[in-house]
Amino acid sequence: MWNVGGAGDITQVQVKGDQKVKNWTNLKRNWGQKWESDAMLVGETLSFRVRASDGRYTTSLGIAPKNWKFGQTFVGKNFP
C-alpha cells in the first residue's frame, strides 16, 4: 500500500472479508509499506481501511474480488 499525496505516511491498515473474516482486522507492518495479516483471507472479497499520519482515513469496500491472487494490484478509493 502506498499513499501518493497528502500526509504521505500510512499509519494503520485494516482488512475484512465477506465470509469468515467479517470484522475489521488490523494488519501488521512487515517492512516499509508492506503489511501482513495472520487471518485466512484467501477466497474472500476484501475491503480495506487505511489511515494516514494526519488522522484521515479512507475505506475501499470490496476492492479485491474473491478470486484475487498474491502479487496482484488493486486501486482503491483515494483520500479526498
Mean pLDDT: 85
Q: What's the multimeric state?
A: single chain
Which descriptor suits the 3D outline? globular
> Helix amount, in percent?
under 10%
| H/I helix tally | 0
Series of H and E elements: EEEEEE
Strand content range: 35-45%
* SSE-based structural type: mainly beta
- Cα separation of the termini: 17 Å
Q: How would you write the strand order of the largest sheet?
A: 2-1-5-6
- Count of β-strands: 6
Integer-rounded radius of gyration? 12 Å
State the low-pLDDT regions, or none. none
Characterize the main sheet.
Answer: 4 strands, antiparallel
What can you see in these coordinates?
With about 80 residues, the protein is an all-beta fold. The chain has a domain at about 10-65. It is about 0% helix and about 40% strand. It is built from no helices and 6 strands. The protein has strands at about 10-15, 25, 30, 35, 45-50, 55-65. It has a 4-stranded antiparallel β-sheet with strand order 2-1-5-6, with no helix packed on it. It has a two-stranded antiparallel ribbon with strand order 3-4. A hairpin with an 8-residue loop joins strand 1 and strand 2 (about 25). It is globular. The relative contact order is 0.26.
